[in-house]
Amino acid sequence: RNTGRAGGINPDSGGVIDAKNLRVKLVLLGDSGVGKSCIVLRFVRGQFDPTSKVTVGASFLSQTVALQDSTTVKFEIWDTAGQERYAALAPLYYRGAAVAVVVYDITSPESFTKAQYWVKELQKHGSPDIVMALVGNKADLQEKREVPVQDGIDYAEKNGMFFIETSAKTADNINQLFEEIAKRLPRPSPT
Ligand code: GDP
């Protein structure tokens, strides 16, 4: 079931493969160091491997989620590879994205503030029907927590986002994150 691989597909591709199978572009946004690459590698390869980062832009991994109603969603997951620092590039990056996952680190209030900046950017420049998720990562570091879970819940609710706390390190809620997104994607009505 592991379909992770790099490159080869038109970045603007996406949408419906057939009535039951979707293919969508998913972008990750958030401060450098919050764990975006680790979340993707955990989801796609089932590993926690902080050393095998994507080091160049314009590369992605894909992974398919099968839902209980036998529909599937193939995520084409784009990693910023550090380009989140260059705000001017961002609209190019999330063009055509059906899903945006905005990540912060629960031990870093600065990263939570930055996440809110990205949400505003997406609201301004993203596709109007984009599905947005807010992710508080590094949930294994409870003793170092500085962002209360309720702050994440409240912000996400106000902005119509799905919210979850994850740990790429322990794998907690990583699959759930992508499954919940898959369930929330708009589907073409059957004809
Ligand atoms: P990115 O810059 O957002 O892509 O962040 P990375 O995925 O490179 O992760 C940055 C650092 O955070 C790495 O050193 C990881 O080891 C660490 N990290 C990522 N996810 C977790 C997590 O869930 N728990 C803990 N404890 N550390 C994590």
UniProtKB/TrEMBL annotation:
This protein's name: Uncharacterized protein
Entry's transmembrane regions: none
Domain of life (superkingdom): Eukaryota
Keyword Nucleotide-binding in annotation: yes
InterPro entries: P-loop_NTPase, Small_GTP-bd, Small_GTPase
Pfam families: Ras
SMART domains: RAB, RAS, RHO
Keywords assigned by UniProt, alphabetized: Nucleotide-binding
NCBIfam families given in the database record: small_GTP (TIGR00231)
